[in-house]
Amino acid sequence: MLSRRMGTVVGLILALALGVAACGGDDDSASSGGGGGGGEKAQGANVAFLPKAINNPYFDVAAKGGEAAANQLGGEFKQVGPSEASAPAQVPFINTLTQQRVDAIAVSANDPNALVPALDRASKSGVKIVTYDSDVAPEARTVFVNQADSEQIGRIEVQILGEQIDKKGEIAILSAASTATNQNAWIKFMKDELGKPEYKDMKLVKVAYGNDDDQKSFQETLGLLQAYPNLKGIISPTTVGIAAAARALDSEGMSGKVKLTGLGTPNQMRKFVKNGTVEEFALWDPEKLGYLAYYAAAAVANDQISGKPGESFDAGKLGKKTVEEDGVVVLGPPTRFNKDNIDDFNF
Amino acid sequence: MKLRWSVLLQWEALLVALLVATFVIGSSVAEAFLTGENLSLASADLMEKAIMALGLTLVILAGEIDLSVASVLGLSSAIVGATVDAGVPLSLAIGIALLAGALAGLFNGLLVAKLGLPSLVVTLGTLALYRGLAFVVLGDRAVSEFPQGFTDFGFNNVPGTLIPWPAILFAILALATFLVLHRSWIGREVYAIGNNEEAARFSGIDVDRVKVGLFVASGTLAAVAGVVFTARFASARPDNGLGFELDVISAVLLGGVSIFGGRGTLVGVVLALFLIGALRNVLALEDVAAEKQSIAIGTLLIVSVIATNALRGVQERAARRRSAPSPADQPT
Amino acid sequence: MLARPEVAPAAEPVEEVRLGRRRLRAGALLDLVGRVREAGIALALALLVLVVAVQEPRFVEPDNLEEILLSVSILAIVAVGQTLVVLTRNVDLSVGSNVGLVAFVCADTLKGSPGTSVALIVLMGVLIGAGLGVVNGLLVTVGRVPAIVATLGTLYIFRGLDFTIAEGQQVNAADVPDAYLSLATGHVLGIPTLILFAAAVVVVASFALRRLRSGRELYAIGSNPEAARLVGVPSGRLVFAAFVLCGALCGLAGVLWGARFATVDARAATGFELAVVAAVVVGGVNIFGGSGTAIGATLGAILLGTIENALSILKLNPFWLQAIQGAVIIAAVTLDALITRRLQRALRRARRRRT
Asked: What is the nearest CA distance from C122 to chain A, expressed in angstroms?
């Protein structure tokens, strides 16, 4: 009886599979808008942003920039992403976008290598890949839109904290995901800066990982305070991390006793700058970053640039942007925020 | 006995109908759905959960549960990553991971069978324990450098076709599980234990040994899933597969396996897996977030049980009318 | 895994229900076991604190002890709710999604209407949570869906609803009035309000379970559902009530979650159900129902929280935390099984002596 029923079921499935195979067939690769290389005028394209994770205000602001750029160019924009900041969580989205045959994907990567196979498959299907905020291995993408020079970011963080603690004492770093390309790039330069003789009395005791998750970052900060009672300062080069750390310090009554700096958004940090938990922090304008990322992605999708150093493209209100070494496009230098200028910004 | 078979026949037919409906609706809603490439990718996405579901089916049929499967996946992935990173040759690394999975299952099985502890709680504990061990093994890092052949296996299709390599692996394992469950004495014993453990014990079945064996199988298969996951994503992380157990259990339950054991078939589970996979794929193509996709899965799960209850209620009443027409029967 | 509803666990004294006097005796014995179990956890806790304090005196500083209690207050509230459900031989896996949903809705409501009174928000949260509990209760009692399946389904559905409502937004500390945040950070007479909330819940629940008839009937339902029904215990209604109360407590926890963590999005409390069941199990509540206390569950929560704090303060490798928590769960369950087996043997011997 089992075999008879099995037969029916198997037959049905086979019929299904055959039917699918019969009508299945790969689409052609995505048609890119616009002509060949050399055309100066920017044009729109169907671009999708894939940030490290959604539900992250920093990336939401960048998305606003991307959307504004799309509107200017008459192209399409959407943002998809995982709820947790991990590379395996980003891969299914790359696959889906490939199936949807978007013109280009702008991705901020949680891991430099893990996304490469999926990105390669996307490229082979005709989808162009650019990265922004956090890079992948250069072979897997055409262009990387970097918010600021990585070395500059790393060193400035240490400099800001050093000013606040007189370059003396134990410090810790509260990072995002341990594999995040941009985090590790900046931390590398932070450590290098700390190695300079002027910082000989500043000691890095721990790098903690908050995974860009608010709760985890909150707990990690509490953990740092418990484990290192002599801690003088924390650098948190992630907007989720610095917000959570500020709250943690505030709730523990440690504002001002442990100095906090890092990369944060003015809106999230305003309350803590005003109450003294954070004296100064840095960032750039994520909206401009998203805006530039869109223009770059569209330029690549329209075959206007191919990632070679020296190429240039039209970046709307940001003017003309040039591709530097390794296919990197830089937005500009970081901005320092403190209580004197924080009210001038709204993001 | 006849009652049960006919209920099952209806159940699997229902699953097939749902699957066909999903395909039909899906292809009209999302143009990219019915392409070979998409179905190939979607199937590949399913494989780790499918492999774990094979082991979990065996365990649940025997009246137990194994919540730790996803953690074993993570542990296995962490072991592969840590050993390869330390220079151990890949085949040895995989062997160690599989052994770890078997040992993990053995630990579960011994606690449940020999000590008589409730499997829900034991595997809740080992869910935490094994995931914790994964973090101890690999720490906060992720290993993403693997030999090309390994990641090719996880990522590519059999040359010339759209069938992912892991699907071949799954097919082999599914066939083996099917033969064990539906064509061998082991399977009969599993069903007997699930139906009535005391009676099974009295009829001479070594319940303890079977249960331990089932948990070892579940653990080993979860470790296999971990290896496949690592190959497919070219990434060994201790939090790989976090939360997967929910989807795997849902697939087994949706496949018609009773949570109390003793009832259900592997065919149903495989159908349910594809149904869940197809549903998630269609929704993903429409940019529906994974957590919102889960509303469909959760609803399907609940409705399926309510439907079965209603169905069984109707059939039981029909059977009672047939067998005991005496008006002197007390109403219950 | 799950005892099937028709087969009661072996050695559960039928005398407990049939013969009034015997019931009291067996009941009193179980009561004693329960208290022994609670004493056991308290002892384990004391030992742990002692060992750690010797290594690191900062551990027992009042600030740190307060920190531990704060970190487990929300867990304790939900664990008490879960206890109500588990006592009846059911389980509620949807608690995490419930807490998360309420946390976001409440925080978001305050973001949109900052003038709303905090008391109203608390009420709203509890009602929403209770409403979700009603869904679970109906599925289990009317729909006859096994609790583990029903609440697995609602775990998915509630979380999905949360995401649909949230639509990618996030509520920050700056968006909500300080009055709300003070639910978690404020103090009354020097004691943090968060701890007071938890303490109140535990005290009321303990009282209800021991002194109220419905409370004791929950135990009866869990230890022998057939017998309970025969004696006239309104099982359906009580199980339904247990789920609703559990949901209500999740709602309260959700309001407090939003206040404590302040940055809330649709992911809040994901996976929380595992910590809750762990606390309940470590606290000596039998997963098959019929025995366990609210205080036990709370002690379980405190024990797990203390372990986490100890690891951090001793600067031990934090990656051992989950593994240790898993080991504690297994140890607790093994211990329980050994105790129960001894008790059953004692009961059997006592019964034999009487006949």
From this structure: 22
Number of domains within chain C: 1
Residue C3 lies in a domain: no
Instruction: With CA atoms as reference, report the closest residue to A284 among A136, A146, A130.
Output: A146
Considering the domain boundaries, does residue C10 fall inside one?
no
CB neighbourhood size of C193 (10 A): 17
* CB contact (8 A) between residue C309 and residue A55: no
Would you call A205 an interface residue with chain C, using a CB distance cutoff of 8 Å?
Answer: no
Residue C313 in domain: yes
Across the interface, do B141 and A12 touch by the CB < 8 Å criterion? no
State the count of interchain CB pairs (< 8 A) between A and B.
98
- State whether CATH 3.30.70.20 applies to domain A46-147+286-332: no
Provide the residue-wise pLDDT of chain C in tens; the chain has 355 residues. Answer: 454 454 444 444 444 433 344 444 555 666 676 677 888 889 889 999 999 999 888 899 898 899 899 999 999 999 999 999 999 999 999 999 999 999 999 999 999 998 899 999 999 999 999 999 999 999 999 999 999 999 999 999 999 999 999 988 888 877 899 899 999 888 999 899 999 999 999 999 999 999 999 999 999 999 999 999 999 999 999 999 999 999 999 999 999 999 998 789 898 999 899 999 999 999 999 999 999 999 999 999 999 999 988 988 887 877 888 899 999 999 999 988 888 788 888 888 888 877 6
In CATH terms, the superfamily for domain A150-283 is: Response regulator (3.40.50.2300)
Searching chain A, which residue's CA lies closest to the CA of residue C186? Answer: A251
Interface probe for C, chosen from A55, A230, A275 (most Cβ of C below 10 Å), is: A55
Measured between CB atoms, which of C152, C281, C324 is closest to B121?
Answer: C281
Q: Is residue B1 part of a domain?
A: no
The whole domain housing B219 covers: 36-309
In this predicted complex, what is the ipTM? 0.89
Residues A226, C312: C-beta atoms closer than 8 Å: yes
Q: Contact at 8 Å (CB) between C193 and C186? A: yes
Total domains in chain B come to 1
CATH code where residue C33 lies:
1.10.3470
In a domain, B54, yes or no: yes
What range does the domain containing C209 cover?
A: 15-354
- pLDDT 10s digits, B254-271: 999 999 999 999 999 999
Nearest Cα residue to B62 out of B217, B244, B241: B217
pLDDT (tens digit, 9 = 90+) per residue, C34-67?
677 888 889 889 999 999 999 888 899 898 899 8
Q: Which of C270, C288, C326 sits opposite B125 (nearest CB)?
A: C326
pLDDT given for residue C19 in this prediction: 36
Average pLDDT of span B133-162: 89
Please report, for chain A, the start and end positions of each structural domain, with discontinuous segments joined by +.
Answer: 46-147+286-332, 150-283
Residue B243 falls inside a structural domain: yes
Domains A46-147+286-332 and A150-283 agree in fold: yes
| Whole-prediction pTM | 0.86
C297 found inside a domain: yes
What is the nearest CA distance from A90 to chain B, expressed in angstroms? 10
Q: Is A239 on the interface with C (CB under 8 A)?
A: no
Tell whether B30 is covered by a domain: no
Using an 8 Å CB-CB cutoff, list chain B residues near A96.
284-285, 287
pLDDT tens digits along A225-284: 988 989 999 999 999 999 999 988 988 888 889 999 999 988 888 889 988 899 999 999
Touching check for B39 and chain C: CB below 8 Å?
no
CATH number for the domain harbouring residue B208: 1.10.3470
